[in-house]
Amino acid sequence: xxxxxxxxxxxxxxxxxxxxxxxxxxxxxxxxxxxxxxxxxxxxxxxxxxxxxxxxxxxxxxxxxxxxxxxxxxxxxxxxxxxxxxxxxxxxxxxxxxxxxxxxxxxxxxxxxxxxxxxxxxxxxxxxxxxxxxxxxxxxxxxxxxxxxxxxxxxxxxxxxxxxxxxxxxxxxxxxxxxxxxxxxxxxxxxxxxxxxxxxxxxxxxxxxxxxxxxxxxxxxxxxxxxxxxxxxxxxxxxxxxxxxxxxxxxxxxxxxxxxxxxxxxxxxxxxxxxxxxxxxxxxxxxxxxxxxxxxxxxxxxxxxxxxxxxxxxxxxxxxxxxxxxxxxxxxxxxxxxxxxxxxxxxxxx
Length: 350
Hints:
Elements: H1 16-26, H2 28-38, H3 41-63, H4 68-73, H5 76-87, H6 94-108, H7 122-133, H8 135-140, E1 142-143, H9 153-162, H10 166-170, E2 171-172, H11 175-182, H12 188-191, H13 205-221, H14 228-244, H15 254-259, H16 263-270, H17 281-301, H18 308-325, H19 337-349
Antiparallel strand pairs: 1-2
Helix pairs in contact: 1-5, 1-13, 2-13, 3-5, 3-6, 5-6, 5-7, 6-7, 7-18, 13-16, 14-16, 14-17, 17-18
């Protein structure tokens, strides 16, 4: 069932392919920062996941009796693979990435009828499937920028496609997971002396998040996305952190929540998926704030160090309810029934 949308009055003639390519281009600063600070793994993952996404999308489209060329040319499968490649650990084995991409396209997109019909964000469906199915590699194969040397291209290829020993020399937990585990028996001042934090937020992770934030601002400037979801996302996360995590000796500080993990990638590129997100401006604010609050809830009280995928999928489930109570005002029509009823009542009383 499709949700009612307002009429498309005076819209710019941007095709789906153009929008997807602009979104992909806006991720390049973040991908560059990931490559500089974490080595070649993320770049290899991006190329591998994008190739798999195009292959699986074409095959699944043909299975549905549709034109594979038309499906892959819109760029949606490419962006799904790109977001997965950016989100997965840099040294993740190739077969786990393959499972993530197949799950994203089969369960997150084509199961519901293809692009425009999916109630869940496909990339996050794939991510959640492999996170639940393979928790150990998904939480331990992150590259630490604080290590003496980053994996070179040969080591990264060997680790991903052969699963060899060089992984142990580079891999480690994320800063959020490190802080959460270490703060139980130490003070914040002691935890922040760990090499992964570099005395500020999280070595490398801060620049990666700032780069994705810059790409997100570019999307706002180009009017590819609207400000409501990312702003509400970050505000909801900040509010929860200030209320329940204000003591850095008990919980990760706000700076770590904002500039470590996948926060900016999630706020600007994942939560803003136009198909699975809320449709009205008020609805987008509720939707984004809900994701931000859930991200903190899962990070703080849950067992997973990062929570973007689960938070987005949970709020995807709430979108029909949000859209029902925050309908889009249709241009050229009268006031909503509730307003008309109030006016009628006032007229009768006068």
